[in-house]
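Annotated sample (chain length 399).
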Amino acid sequence: MGAEVISAREARRIALAAQGFADKRPETPGKRHLLKTIERLGVIQIDSVNVVSRTHYLPAFSRLGAYPRPLLEEVAWGKRPALVEYWAHEASLLPAATHRLLRWRMDDAREGVGTWKGIARFLRTHADFIDKCLAEIETRGPMPASELSLGAKGAGSWWGWSEGKRALESLFWVGDLTTATRRGTFERVYGLPDKVLPKEARGEPPPRAEAQRELLRIAARAQGVATERDLRDYFRMGVAETKARIAELVEAGDLVETKVKGWDGAAYLHREARRPRKILANALLSPFDNLIWFRERTERLFGTRVRLEIYTPAHKRVHGYYVLPFLQGEAITARVDLKAERKKGVLMVQATHAEPDADAVTPELLAAELRLMADWLGLDRVEVAPKGDLAAQLAAAVA
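Output written by the structure step:
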């Protein structure tokens, strides 16, 4: 019996449902909803860019609406955190229990396996300095790199980090330090894992292969239907190990090999994937949202190219600096370049563009999401600049 064949439209609905966009937003989103959303996603990316909001606040907003922002800080960096930080996709927040599933990556970093050679080399060539950094944190307690008494203040390499910052980040990579909390303008405070990690993150990790299988189960559940490359990207795993683990999961029945019309090669359906007949979501998406962070998958699912233009010179940008795609129903129909002008109390729409190949965008739905976001950010109003082919219609809808 051959693999099941599903349409591209059905695959898109499965993916949207897996990401939480088939569910109605709660009237009063709270801590339980937030934790359930993060558990469903498995991991959320952290980024320091704060033009609108730091990206780790946005996936829950996209799915839940205007949840209280301090709740994320509580579950991530409060006295009893449910989340921990590590390099899972990129720099990420993830449920505490998942931390143990990444110990093999920490071991690889320590041994200099694959892409981790620079970290292993720094730890080896600065062994005495590393020991002193660890001893200072053990004696004084959790601290940011800026309070470390050791190390030159600017080495010019590794993004201009000080020797102390390089040491603490290397120790974070190999799991000898972790994030105890964040301070001020998002400064990481480093602490010893056995003193600051939640109990779910401590203890013996499963064997490497089983940990990788579980990471792929999480990725498959969060994506619904996915190619091998989609699954591999979710937790940034290696090619050979991903292929081996996927074969094992297919054999175990956790994944079902499937064919999606228009997709190259095999796809894998999570055995519990939902198959809704319709999706009625309306959501602004962070450029780092789990749904669209792997651009190849985004183009396959939605037929649209999403590119981050932060590092593109201003005169070469097509859509803007910090652009949020708008998910309307089952399609990405528009993009808005947003900026939170906090002193003025304005959510500024600096440019608005419709997607040429999407179904017609409904400006009123986009305006409603922008007003919701402005309120959530503590801003008084939305203003629309006259830039982009959808700007005039959106301005009228906002007004």
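Annotation: Confidence is low (pLDDT under 50) at residues 154-160.
Annotation: The longest strand covers residues 331-341.
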